[in-house]
Structure formats: structure tokens, C-alpha cells
């Protein structure tokens, strides 16, 4: 018998949890209390007595009614016991003391406090490992990964806690208590099996901090395990990525995974992607697909765009951590989504990481001074470009197998149709920043140029005919280029751009990297510096037949409106 007391640092409230069972009265329930640390314990004891009195009266009246209905009123009826409650310290009742005073100096190993309820003692466990929140996703597909959609631990560590998976079939009576559970896996992530179809899953978590364990928490899935969508086009692509690369070769992914922030709205369901069933737009469905897809590419560097902050923390980090990936996240302003870069720790070590929201830095970052001075008098343009939350992320990695370094840039550019000039300026500022970091790295790491290479991934929201592709692959965009006139009120005048690096697109210019009913073209790229790197292989993209099988994407087999770019690169 245990009663759990929990007090988080800095909080005013003490959380108390007690599981009470009384077979005679059919009582089996949790009692939860939230009390001020400055409250006299006698006030809480009075509350417990009151709550228990109500519970016993409810069960007593229910039991008496049953006996009356069954005409069994002959013998005596069990009376409600006297509800006696006291908090004991070293077997002495505590009076006129606050929780703060009683718990001062206590920890999870303290064994001198007991709560006595109707002559039954419950040991007080203070700040023991605890599961504050546990849930499973609303969609579970056979042969895909399933893991907690919510997991909040207190005084415990995820990696030290135990996770047990069970499956069971709901009986015709729909009585969950009658489900017969069979254990199928141990570990935080379970790859569901074909045999699980039609079953509910249950996850048990035994929280631990390494020294002690807390109370078991469990959660039963609301849904049954369903059959998957059949063969997904990305599984055909996996045939080209069945093995990890090594030594001088490495594999890079760039993928806009479609943020739930944008997919989960009536406008999206009815206007943008009306051809996609609502269940297939649900994040719990889509993330199963793109996680299986990303992991199956056996890559070394992963650049993602439209990453919800919650997806980064709850899904990408724990899943990719199992495959030795470490990730960094850069939020787009306060939008709730951003860009993420992951790298295989077996192959690369993190040297430095950088990131910024471009718009707010344009007027104040000295690196941007030259270009800023050319546009600062264009009031309409400045008002717009400085308010945009486009973020740039740069990660400096060192190869563990060679002496080479990679400067990995990741971006998701502004989307508006009348903003070619905005996007071109954003890349102009980005390249100035990347050039600064490149030169800084050469200096700080004492490198020759043949040991440092730039890779620039992202959703550039720009087709190959626009200025961004020209600037990166030809090094120069002139003053009279058409992109500068994308919006007449904000037209950019007397500005040309140049950048010093030899850069090509690893995947060339595919016909489509984004494919919806309203728009389909090449918007995504893996740009790489050609001085020291060469393309070894490009993983074939889905065919037009695959993209149109369900009208367009996203669909039941494509989790995003973009396709992943995957390229194998090699140091020369």
C-alpha cells in the first residue's frame, strides 16, 4: 500500500495520489488531491474523510438497493465503517503542521511517513518516479512503428524506465475489463505486426530513475490496429538504400514533411487537399508513414522542413535516437514549426550549430550590412521582408572516418506567389551568412579549403527558372533579372547578387518535388559544393503514375505534399 506525494521545484502545490481498494464494498479507485504546501495537514485529512464517506455511502446504498430488489433483506446489512484517517511520522499522529514543514528534508528514500485509513497503513512515497501523462496515437497501422503520443515523466528518466506492450481483442460485450492481454514487446517503440490487426494495444510504463521504480501507468489504445495502406512508393525507393554508406560516402535527405499546423484545418481539408481522405491527413496517420520512410533511407544527414515543434520532441528525437541520430531544431519565429537537421553520431560529430530568423536580423546583423544598405529605403519591401519568419539553420559537422568537415545549411523559404524578389533576397542574405561561417570555420578549425564543404538543403519554394537556382549554380543574378519585379510595389532596383562558391544541385531539376492538384513543380533541392564533393547516386523519385494514383499528394501512401530528395555524395 503506497500513497504518492509529488512536489516539483518552484511549484506551490503538492500532488497526492492514492489507489484505494475495499473488496467488501466494491471500491477500487484513485483519489487525487492538489494541496498547497503551506496548508495545515489536518485540513487535507478532513477532505479525505469527506471524500471517503461519500464513496462508502454511494457503494453502501447501491449494495442495499440490490439486496432489496432481490428480496434478500433477511440477515444484517454491512454498515459503513467509521472513517478514521491520520498521517503518521514515526508512528505518531501529526497535528498542526504544514506539508512544507513535514516534507522538509524528505526524499524518495524516506520511510518514516504513513497515511492510515480505517486502520490500514499506506507508506508515503515522496517524489518517487511518476508517469504524469501517457497516451497512444489515434491511428495504429500494422507493420509501422507505434510509440507513446504523449509521455510525461516526473522524477524519472525515459531511458531508465521500462515499457511493456500488450495486445488484446475487445469482447462482444465491449467490457474492457474482460480483455485478455498478451505481452508482445518490451521497449518504448514497437513495430506492430500483421497478427495485431483487429486488436487493441496496451502500453505499460514502469517509471524509474535508476535507483527506484514508481507506480505502473498504463494506457489502452482507443483504436484497433488496422491494416496498412499496402505498398507505399517510398518502400520501392528503399530498395536503393538497403545499406548504410561508409568511409568517403554519405547519404543526405531533404524533406518537407508537411506540418500538422497546416494540415489540420478545414481550409486544408476542403480547399488545398480535398482529394486526400481526412484520416490520411491526420498527423497520427501521416507520421507513421514518414518515420518509416525516413528511417528506411539509411541516411547519414537528414534535413527536414515544416517540422512541428511537438513532432520534433515527441516523435523525431526519440525515434531517430534509436538509430544513433542527434538532431537540432530551429523554430520559424513563433509559428510552432520550423526546420530540423539530424546527423548519424556514428559517422559525424557536432562541432557547432547556428540558426536565425532571417527577417528580424536583416536590419541589425552586420554581416547583412552591404545588402541591407541597398534596400533599406524601399519602405514597402522592408515592412514585408522583416516581418517574415523564415529561418536558416546551419550545422557544422566533422566526419569521424575522414578529416573532412561539412557545413550543412537548411532552409524553408517564404511561399507567396508574388514573392520571387523576397525569396531571392532571403537567399542573398543566407549566402552572406553561410560565407561568413565558412570563413570563420576555416580560421577556427585551421582548415584548408579542400577539407570543408557546403551542403544547402531545403524547400526553396522556387522553380529552376527563378533567380535562386541561377545564383547558386551560376554565382550571379543581375540587376535587371525578372524576379526583382515580382511585386511592383516592392520592386527591387539597382541590386545584383553574387556568391563565391561552386555549387550544383545533387538531384538536378526533377520534374516534380511538390505535387498537388493546384500546383506541381520542382521546389526542393540538395545543393552541394562541387570542389570537394561529387554525386555518387541519386535515389529515383516517385513516378508520375505513383504521384497521381490517388489524384495527387498527400494521399494514403504519401504523407506529405512534397517528396523526399535522397542523394549519395562522396568526398573526392
TrEMBL record:
GO BP field: mRNA processing; nuclear-transcribed mRNA catabolic process, deadenylation-dependent decay
Domain 2',5'-phosphodiesterase 12-like N-terminal: 129-225
Record keyword Transit peptide present: yes
UniProt keyword list: Exonuclease, Hydrolase, Magnesium, Metal-binding, Mitochondrion, mRNA processing, Nuclease, Phosphoprotein, Transit peptide
Cellular component terms (Gene Ontology): mitochondrial matrix
A Pfam match: Exo_endo_phos
Cellular localization per UniProt: Mitochondrion matrix
MF (Gene Ontology): metal ion binding; poly(A)-specific ribonuclease activity
Cofactor(s) in the UniProt record: Mg(2+)
Metal-binding listed as a keyword: yes
Domain Endonuclease/exonuclease/phosphatase intervals: 254-562
Database matches in InterPro entries: CCR4/nocturin_mRNA_transcr (IPR050410), Endo/exonu/phosph_ase_sf (IPR036691), Endo/exonuclease/phosphatase (IPR005135), PDE12-like_N (IPR048821)
Protein name stated in the entry: 2',5'-phosphodiesterase 12
Organism this protein belongs to: Tabanus bromius
Amino acid at each position: 500500500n503506497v500513497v504518492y506525494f509529488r512536489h516539483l521545484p518552484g511549484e506551490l502545490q503538492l500532488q497526492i495520489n492514492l489507489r484505494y481498494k475495499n473488496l467488501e464494498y466494491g471500491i477500487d479507485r484513485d483519489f487525487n488531491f492538489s494541496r498547497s504546501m503551506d496548508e495545515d495537514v489536518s485540513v487535507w485529512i478532513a477532505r479525505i474523510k469527506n471524500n471517503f464517506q461519500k464513496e462508502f455511502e454511494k457503494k453502501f446504498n447501491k449494495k442495499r438497493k440490490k439486496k432489496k430488489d432481490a428480496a434478500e433483506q433477511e440477515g444484517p446489512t454491512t454498515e459503513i465503517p467509521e472513517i478514521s484517517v491520520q498521517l503518521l511520522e514515526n508512528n505518531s499522529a501529526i497535528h498542526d503542521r504544514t506539508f512544507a514543514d513535514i516534507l522538509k528534508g524528505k526524499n524518495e528514500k524516506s520511510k518514516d511517513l504513513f497515511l492510515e485509513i480505517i486502520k490500514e497503513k499506506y507508506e508515503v512515497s515522496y517524489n518517487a518516479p511518476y508517469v504524469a501523462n501517457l497516451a497512444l496515437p489515434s491511428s495504429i497501422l500494422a507493420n509501422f512503428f507505434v510509440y507513446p503520443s504523449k509521455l510525461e515523466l516526473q522524477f524519472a528518466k525515459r531511458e531508465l524506465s521500462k515499457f511493456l506492450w500488450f495486445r488484446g481483442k475487445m469482447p462482444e460485450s465491449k467490457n474492457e475489463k474482460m480483455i485478455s492481454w498478451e505481452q508482445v514487446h518490451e521497449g518504448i517503440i514497437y513495430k506492430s505486426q500483421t497478427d495485431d490487426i483487429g486488436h487493441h494495444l496496451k502500453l505499460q510504463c514502469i517509471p524509474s530513475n535508476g535507483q527506484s521504480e514508481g507506480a505502473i501507468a498504463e494506457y489502452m489504445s482507443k483504436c484497433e490496429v488496422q491494416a496498412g495502406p499496402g505498398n507505399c512508393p517510398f518502400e520501392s525507393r528503399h530498395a536503393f538504400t538497403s545499406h548504410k554508406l561508409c568511409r568517403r560516402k554519405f547519404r543526405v535527405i531533404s524533406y518537407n514533411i508537411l506540418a500538422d499546423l497546416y494540415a489540420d484545418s478545414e481550409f486544408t481539408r476542403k480547399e488545398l487537399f480535398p482529394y486526400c481522405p481526412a484520416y490520411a491527413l491526420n498527423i497520427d496517420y501521416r507520421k507513421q508513414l514518414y518515420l518509416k520512410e525516413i528511417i528506411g533511407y539509411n541516411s547519414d544527414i537528414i534535413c527536414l522542413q515544416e517540422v512541428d515543434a511537438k513532432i520534433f520532441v515527441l516523435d523525431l528525437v526519440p525515434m531517430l535516437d534509436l538509430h544513433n541520430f542527434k538532431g537540432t531544431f530551429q523554430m520559424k519565429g513563433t509559428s510552432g514549426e520550423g526546420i530540423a537537421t539530424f546527423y548519424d553520431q556514428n559517422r559525424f560529430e557536432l562541432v557547432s550549430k547556428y540558426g536565425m530568423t532571417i527577417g528580424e536580423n536583416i536590419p541589425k546583423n552586420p554581416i547583412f550590412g552591404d545588402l541591407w544598405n541597398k534596400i533599406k529605403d524601399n519602405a514597402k519591401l522592408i515592412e514585408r521582408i522583416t516581418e517574415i519568419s523564415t529561418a536558416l539553420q546551419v550545422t557544422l559537422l566533422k566526419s569521424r572516418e575522414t578529416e573532412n568537415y561539412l557545413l550543412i545549411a537548411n532552409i524553408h523559404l517564404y511561399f507567396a506567389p508574388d514573392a520571387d524578389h523576397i525569396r531571392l533576397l532571403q537567399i542573398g542574405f543566407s549566402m552572406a551568412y553561410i560565407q561568413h561561417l565558412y570563413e570563420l570555420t576555416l580560421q577556427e578549425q585551421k582548415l584548408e579549403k579542400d577539407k570543408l564543404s557546403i551542403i544547402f538543403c531545403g524547400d526553396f519554394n522556387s522553380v529552376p527558372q527563378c533567380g535562386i537556382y541561377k545564383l547558386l549554380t551560376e554565382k550571379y543574378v543581375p540587376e535587371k533579372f525578372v524576379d526583382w519585379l515580382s511585386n511592383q510595389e516592392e520592386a527591387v532596383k539597382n541590386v545584383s547578387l553574387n556568391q563565391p562558391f561552386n555549387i550544383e544541385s545533387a538531384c538536378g531539376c526533377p520534374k516534380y518535388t511538390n505535387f498537388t492538384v493546384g500546383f506541381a513543380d520542382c521546389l526542393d533541392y540538395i545543393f552541394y559544393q562541387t570542389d570537394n564533393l561529387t554525386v555518387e547516386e541519386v535515389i529515383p523519385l516517385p513516378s508520375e503514375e505513383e504521384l497521381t494514383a490517388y489524384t495527387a499528394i498527400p494521399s494514403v501512401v504519401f504523407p506529405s505534399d512534397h517528396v523526399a530528395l535522397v542523394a549519395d555524395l562522396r568526398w573526392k
